[in-house]
UniProtKB/TrEMBL annotation:
The keyword Signal applies. Keywords: Signal. This is F-box domain-containing protein. Pfam families: F-box-like. It comes from Gymnopus androsaceus JB14. Residues 1-16 form the signal peptide. The keyword Signal applies. SUPFAM superfamilies: F-box domain.
Length: 275
């Protein structure tokens, strides 16, 4: 019976030893693969001086984990000293990482400027830059139909949208008053906090002496003071009216309130009148 117990105890210790050794080998192999590799090409004195205090000898660690038990384990003081060096190396690594990260951030700004410069250089090769001004103006004239000045969307005001692309397009758009002379107004959407509709002044000034095409779709409310002010501003330019199309008769009356001259008008449309 005693011999059987001794045999079982020996077998248990042998199995435990092999299991522990196998587990230790796997742990050492795993961490050795994940261990950081510091391969630095020193470009300055600070990089050249960055060195680790700890000698990460994984083979030695593996050997000691397998063989040191009981009284053969090294003293706590020695292990504590090595751990202290490891902690210092970690602090130094963090400091070096922050230094390198600052260098990366410092490089990101000029790289961004280089990307923008590259885009600008590519713009110089754009085919549209080779088109003469006359051809571009023909395209603008085709694209700019009516400008709905009371809309909150820029695409409904093509003359203004084109003039905001670049300095060349702005100069071309301002040199072509016909683009600014086709005006559409939704009277009931005119904001009351903008009396006189300032954008209308921009279009009237940019259209210079070009004949005006004015359209007023249907209105869903009675004419207010802001509406009458816009009508008076347009009525002052009656000598430039080429086409006038008013939806509600109230707008037509407001536009014709004064005896103005209409030397070039070709069409005047209202619900009750047609010239």
């Amino acid at each position: 019976m005693i011999l059987l117990l001794l045999y079982l105890s020996s077998l248990f210790l042998s199995l435990f030893y092999h299991w522990h050794r196998n587990l230790t080998d796997k742990a050492v192999t795993f961490y050795s693969r994940r261990a950081p590799k510091f391969t630095m090409a020193p470009s300055n004195q600070q990089q050249a001086n960055f060195q680790l205090r700890t000698n990460m000898d994984w083979e030695e660690i593996r050997r000691r984990l397998r063989s040191e038990y009981g009284s053969e384990v090294q003293s706590e003081a020695e292990i504590s000293g090595v751990l202290a060096d490891v902690d210092k190396d970690l602090v130094d690594c963090d400091a070096e990482f922050r230094r390198l990260q600052s260098g990366i951030i410092a490089l990101q700004n000029p790289r961004k400027r280089l990307e923008e410069y590259k885009v600008s250089l590519r713009f110089l090769r754009s085919p549209i830059r080779r088109l003469p001004n006359e051809t571009i103006l023909r395209i603008f004239d085709y694209a700019c139909e009516m400008n709905e000045l009371t809309s909150k969307q820029l695409q409904t005001m093509p003359a203004l949208a084109i003039s905001g692309v670049c300095s060349r397009w702005r100069d071309l758009a301002r040199s072509c008053p016909e683009l600014w002379s086709r005006i559409e107004l939704e009277m009931w959407t005119i904001p009351r906090h903008l009396p006189g509709l300032p954008i209308l002044d921009l279009y009237l000034d940019s259209s210079k002496q070009s004949p005006l095409t004015l359209e007023f779709p249907s209105i869903n409310a009675e004419l207010q003071a802001a509406h009458l002010e816009v009508c008076a501003k347009l009525a002052a330019c009656s000598d430039r009216w080429k086409k006038l199309a008013t939806g509600p008769y109230e707008i037509y009356q407001a536009m014709m309130a004064q005896p103005f001259q209409f030397p070039i008008i070709g069409t005047a449309l209202s619900p009750q009148y047609r010239l």
